[in-house]
Amino acid sequence: MGGFFELLADPDVGFLRNALLLGLIGSIPLGVVGSFVVVRRISYLAAAVAHSALGGIGLSLFARVELGWDWLPPFAGALIFTVAAALLIGWIAVQKGQREDAAIGTVWVGGMAIGIIAIAKTSGYNDPMAYLFGDILLVRESDLWLAGGFAILIVALLALWHRQLFAVLFDPEFAAARGLRNDPVYLLLLVLTALTVVTLVSLIGVVLVVALLTLPPAIALARCQRFGLVIFAAVGINLLCISLGLWFSYVLDFPAGPSIILVAAGLYAATLFR
């Protein structure tokens, strides 16, 4: 472990410090929003939103290379696509009265198909695996500022709307009887999920990010009775998974994203045999 901390202090490996800082920042919204996602049982919806981010990433890369839109980073493309995907799923479920699973499947595969086609049509070499499963070298300082901004925004929105979210999650009938409209609160949760997903896309990719959104809260739910404690525990478990995952990645020379997820999966498996 000492060698890992010495490496963090090395000025030539700023990418590793950026990855760790991004993980620490992203742990907060992942733990908080993930707790709501797990309790509301919309993990599959979160997975669809995460996978749709590839569409925005692919189109952003295409626009930067083929159209000269240097001002459009992949992060922004992922943000636009995930928010749009979340709102589309919510609109279909709420306004059209259709089953969520059909909308989830359509957005899931459609977003990935758009992204893969766009990347394939972009000149030069672009490895889609780096965006699907993450790449520690993709983490830049600009990602840290954006992730920090999103973390502050997400926490602020949750601070303003936490009572409404609690009511809709745990007693929707009572909330409706008190005049609280469930649909806008539900859409807010979907948008918060989309914002949370994009915070760690560059580190662990669009495929694996949903694991940190769901596994730490699931572990916390197995140990904590009060929802407030679940949220704090989920944030802490995310911090632990990301820190240990990056350390294992350094020691064993494994890819960073899968290493982080293996730690989370191992901790979850341990809760099954308590």
Explain briefly what this protein structure is:
The chain has helices at residues 2-8, 14-40, 43-66, 74-94, 100-120, 128-133, 141-170, 172-177, 182-199, 201-223, 227-252, 256-271. The chain has 274 residues and is mostly helical.
Textual characterization of the structure:
Helix content is 82%, strand content 0%. The chain is mostly helical. The radius of gyration is 19 Å and the shape is globular. Helix 3 (43-66) packs across helix 4 (74-94) and helix 10 (201-223) crosses helix 11. The chain contains twelve helices and no strands.
Q: Which descriptors apply to this entry?
A:
globular; 0% strand; 12 helices; 82% helix; 274 residues; mainly alpha; single chain
Break the fold down into its secondary structure elements and pairings.
Elements: H1 2-8, H2 14-40, H3 43-66, H4 74-94, H5 100-120, H6 128-133, H7 141-170, H8 172-177, H9 182-199, H10 201-223, H11 227-252, H12 256-271
Largest sheet entry: none
What is the N-to-C order of secondary-structure elements (H for helix, E for strand)? HHHHHHHHHHHH
Query: How large, in whole angstroms, is the Cα Rg?
Result: 19 Å
H/I helix tally:
12
- The class by helix and strand makeup works out as mainly alpha
Number of strands: 0
Helix content: over 70%
Chain-averaged pLDDT: 82
**Percentage of residues in strands:** under 5%
Measured between the Cα atoms of the first and last residue, the distance is 28 Å
Low-confidence stretches: none
Q: State the shape.
A: globular
